[in-house]
Specification:
The complex is a heterodimer of chains A (860) and B (70). By secondary structure, chain A is mostly beta strands. The chains are: A mainly beta (860), B mainly beta (70).
Chain lengths: 860, 70
């Protein structure tokens, strides 16, 4: 059935009448002229000239949405579904021009939903996007080199690339467009070279213990034992003593002198001359590890028995002199020091890594000798700290109409309104509304949105790096924390020093020491000897350090050291109670460089898998810029209405014309304007934009495996030298993955003894000779005293005393000072830095389509 | 063109040259941590005294005369 009147129809409708049907085949207004404009990045607009209805078009009783359609000779097809932009400027003439715009009511939601599906690496990388824009659809679209495109009638929204035609290519030969309507223009010179200079910061961190080793050292001094570093001693540069022990296996300190006495009496009743009548022996001897000894004084008297001796008168006077022997001595003891040492390191090393690369476009020249400013650009970017977790933050639109779980953090869409710069967190689950609520910017204020309750996190954007769990802290509902994993050791390692001595000893454990025993954890809550005076509290788990928790109610956190059981409740939405506060897991954040808070070990970002994705993101940013700037030749033409009706900004067009260099132009439709009026022919003006590439393609090269044959290991675990990797955009851009080169102190975490120990030496020679010399001097001094015969000659006494003092100067302590035995350790500092590294990446040229052959030598 | 950029960013180096290392292994501006235990030889060592005393008496026949007993 042919329609009456026409060929254009306008039906005022409700916004909900989104499906075109027979009921819309009517002429609510008489249409004199029509002009529909489809333009990249813009919503479709229709200008129509209608008979002046002489009523207010925006009257509350009138409908402001309209279906505009036309009869194509067979049937009536829709041209645009949209709403009035505003009152027409001219209200008093017979006709007026009104403007309708295809602006779907759910445009933001559609765009947001579409953008969510596009948040994939490497096209979307939160490392390079400020926290408030990580869910911004336009920001997400940046690396795709595309526009949001709204269909003029069904209002579906898709992303259309700068050179893509998802609706297909339309091939037009000379007869398909009007003679004389054809023209071309060249825009600004293409940018052919962009340098990217991007930097990411992080803090390389790690904690651990290193068993340094043991020594057994024999010495006449106990200086090694008394000077041995004690546990918890801070050594500086990130080192402290974790466990240590030094004891004397010879127990010289327990050594003492022992006295032995022996006497004998002759009990016989009859004796002969010369019979021994008594013997008395008294001896004091050292009991202990004697290294060397010296006799100081010695005296003896020979016994004599002469029963026939006579006196001066010749009378018998028998002689009986007892035999005696007296000796004094000194004994120097040796110490056998048995030492062990275990150190703890806490590395906190600021690092930055800077990646520099240039991407050149493989394009045909536009200018003969362009200036640097015309064709080049430097892009400088600074990324987020890649060593802290990145929270997944969403815009409100993303969750509008959706079910929201407790703990979801969002940003309101519009930063211009009050509360728009806040972050909001869901404190009661439900379905979010479909209209943006008025969020509060006051911390803790709640906003009801559908059946969801949001709590304001304040006007400051929440940092990625939330604070740790702290004991005894007042907490308000909505507080987010990131419980860190404390440093802990195996219980066996803690108790090992006590087992290294004989007899075994109990080990002192300090308050706040966390340990693992089997699958359980414990913490020392009161210092003391393990097993007796130390108080230990058991813990089911320790946090992993990468899962965020949110407080569901106000309260105060629990006691010191007793970290709640976060580790067993890290599954999303699991809950754990902490002194009345209920914490709920709100998921884990990604730490781009890998690891967990406190254990960020990697020395490089860009030379590992995640870093390569970030590198590719940067390349995609440049690729999009280059593609935009190299789409610089516009070709315009006019075609008939019927042909033009099929052309939209979702098409590419191949245009054949002998006036074009090479005779052909291929480009993406930039604008398509359909127009009709009573005085002008029905036409469509189309402009396409052509890339000026050379149609070259890049090939991927796997490269040679560096470390092992790839039959024996996964590709993920080996490095391929000279590999060429294509970006996910296809065969238009590739790069050679950078390899890590050591630019720091060479420490690789976790540390081991071999890495950190620079010097491990026992100094000194055998001290026995020096000690013996000192003992000799002692003996000489003692003999001077012993030989003093009591003569009261002043000079003699003075000289003897002086000599004795000089001899005393050569003492054992002096000998040990002069020739000490000592142990030297030197360790690499772990808190060196900051380290700044630069990674240069080689990219291929960015190739693109030859939309127009500016170098053609062929006349068509 | 890229060499021009490199000239801006790293005037002393060519495009393909590696960056100068910021540090070299073991020399990072922070001296090593040194432990020198017992170097002062302190403590003076420990000595013990010894002694020996021996005495022995023998029998000798006594004689009497006007001066007494000898």
């Amino acid at each position: 059935m042919s329609p009456v009147a026409g060929p254009f129809y306008l039906a005022w409708v409700d916004a909900t009448e989104t499906t075109f049907g027979l009921e819309h085949h009517r002429m609510d207004e008489y249409v004199y002229s029509v002009r529909r404009t489809l333009s990249e990045g813009q919503k479709p607009v229709l200008e129509i000239e209608i008979e002046n209805p002489r009523v207010g078009l925006l009257s509350t009783n009138r409908k402001t949405w309209a279906w505009v359609s036309w009869f194509n000779g067979t049937t009536i097809v829709p041209l645009l579904f949209g709403h009035l932009v505003g009152n027409p400027v001219q209200l008093t003439k017979e006709t007026m021009t009104i403007q309708l715009i295809a602006d779907p009511k759910n445009y933001k939601h559609q765009v947001q939903m579409l953008a969510e599906s596009m948040k994939v690496l490497p096209y979307w990388d939160p490392v390079w996007i400020e926290v408030g824009k990580r869910d911004d659809p336009d920001k997400i679209l940046e690396t795709y080199a595309a526009f949001w495109d709204v269909h003029p009638t069904n209002h579906d929204v898709i992303a259309v690339g700068l050179a893509a035609g998802p609706a297909g290519n339309i091939d037009l030969t000379e007869g398909d467009y009007f003679y004389g309507s054809f023209s071309s223009t060249t825009g600004q010179p293409p940018e052919t070279s962009i340098l990217m200079d991007a930097t990411v910061p992080w803090t390389q961190s790690s904690r651990g213990i290193v068993y340094v080793g043991s020594h057994i050292v024999r010495s006449y001094s106990n200086a090694i034992i008394s000077g041995w570093p004690k546990p918890l001693t801070q050594l500086g540069s990130g080192w402290s003593v974790y466990a240590s022990n030094a004891f004397d296996s010879g127990h010289a300190d327990m050594a003492e002198s022992v006295s032995i006495s022996y006497s004998w009496q002759n009990k016989e009743k009859h004796h002969s001359n010369g019979d021994t009548m008594s013997l008395s022996v008294s001896q004091t001897v050292p009991k202990g590890p004697v290294g060397t000894s010296k006799v100081l004084t010695q005296s003896s008297q020979t016994g004599l028995v002469d029963p026939f001796a006579v006196d001066e008168d010749g009378d018998p006077s028998p002689l009986n002199i007892p035999a005696t022997y007296n000796e004094t001595s000194v004994h120097a003891l040796t110490y056998t020091a048995v030492t062990t040492l275990t150190l703890e390191y806490r590395a906190e090393r600021p690092r930055t890594e800077r990646v520099i690369f240039t991407i050149n476009a493989d394009v045909q020249p536009i200018l003969v000798d362009p200036t640097v400013d015309q064709v080049s650009e430097i892009v400088t970017m600074t990324g987020a700290d890649v060593g802290v977790p990145i929270i997944n933050l969403l815009n409100w639109t993303t969750v509008s109409g959706q079910h929201v779980e407790v703990g979801q953090v969002i940003f309101p869409d519009d930063p211009q309104v009050p509360g728009g710069r806040t972050a909001q967190i869901a404190v009661a689950e439900g379905d979010a509304g479909t209209e943006p609520p008025n969020f509060s910017d006051i911390l803790g204020d709640e906003t009801v949105d559908g059946t969801v309750t949001w709590s304001s996190l304040g006007s400051a954007e929440p940092p990625d790096n939330s604070r740790d769990w702290q004991f005894g802290s007042p907490i308000t509902a909505g507080t987010i924390i990131l419980p860190r994993r404390p440093f802990f050791a195996q219980l066996g390692d803690l108790l090992a020093p006590g087992q290294q001595v004989f007899p075994p000893q109990e080990v002192q454990l300090n308050e706040g020491t966390y340990f693992q025993s089997g699958s359980n954890f414990g913490v020392v809550v009161l210092s003391g000897k393990f097993g007796t005076s130390a108080q230990i509290a058991g813990l089911n788990s320790l946090p992993s350090g990468s899962t965020y928790f949110m407080a569901l109610n106000d309260g105060t956190t629990g006691p010191q050291y007793l970290i709640p059981d976060f580790g067993s409740h890290e599954t999303l939405h699991d809950r754990v109670t902490d002194n009345g506060i209920v914490w709920q897991s709100i998921g884990s954040g990604e730490i781009p460089i890998g690891g967990v808070p406190g254990e960020i070990r990697s020395p490089t970002f860009f030379c590992q898998e995640r870093g390569l994705r970030s590198l590719e993101y940067l390349a995609l940013v440049l690729r999009a810029k280059l593609q935009w700037r190299c789409r610089c030749v516009d070709v315009s033409f006019e075609t008939d209405w019927l042909t033009g009706y099929t052309i939209s900004t979702r098409n590419t067009v191949t245009l054949h014309n002998p006036d074009l260099p090479g005779g052909i132009a291929f480009g993406k439709v930039k604008t398509a304007v359909l127009s009709f009026s009573d005085t002008e022919p029905a036409i469509c003006q189309v402009t396409i934009s052509c890339l000026i590439g050379k149609d070259n393609a890049i090939e991927e090269v796997q490269g040679e495996p560096e470390y092992c044959d790839d039959d024996y290991c996964d590709d993920d675990y080996q490095f391929f030298a000279e590999a060429v990797v294509l970006l996910p955009t296809g065969s238009d851009l590739s790069y050679t993955p950078p390899t890590y080169r050591v630019i720091d102190d060479g420490l690789t975490f976790p540390l081991d003894r071999g890495q950190i120990l620079l010097v491990d030496l026992v100094h000194g020679t055998d001290q026995t000779g020096d000690v013996q010399s000192a003992l000799d001097s002692m003996a000489q001094a003692a003999n001077i005293v012993a030989k003093y015969d009591g003569t009261n000659a002043v000079d003699a006494v003075y000289n003897a005393d002086l000599q004795r003092q000089l001899l005393s100067a050569n003492s054992i302590s002096k000998a040990l000072e002069d020739n000490p035995t000592w142990i030297e350790y030197q360790f690499k500092p772990v808190n060196a830095g900051p380290f700044h590294s630069v990674v240069h990446v080689k990219f291929s040229e960015f190739t693109m389509e030859r939309g127009i052959d500016l170098e053609s030598e062929v006349t068509t | 063109m890229s060499q021009l950029f490199e000239g801006i960013v790293r005037p002393a180096q060519s495009e393909v040259a590696l960056p100068q290392p910021y540090t070299t292994p073991g020399q990072v501006g922070v001296p090593p941590v040194k432990l020198m235990i017992g170097r002062d030889g302190g403590g003076g060592g420990k000595t013990l005294s010894g002694s020996v005393s021996i005495s022995m008496s023998s029998y000798c026949e006594r004689h009497e005369n006007e001066k007494g007993v000898n």
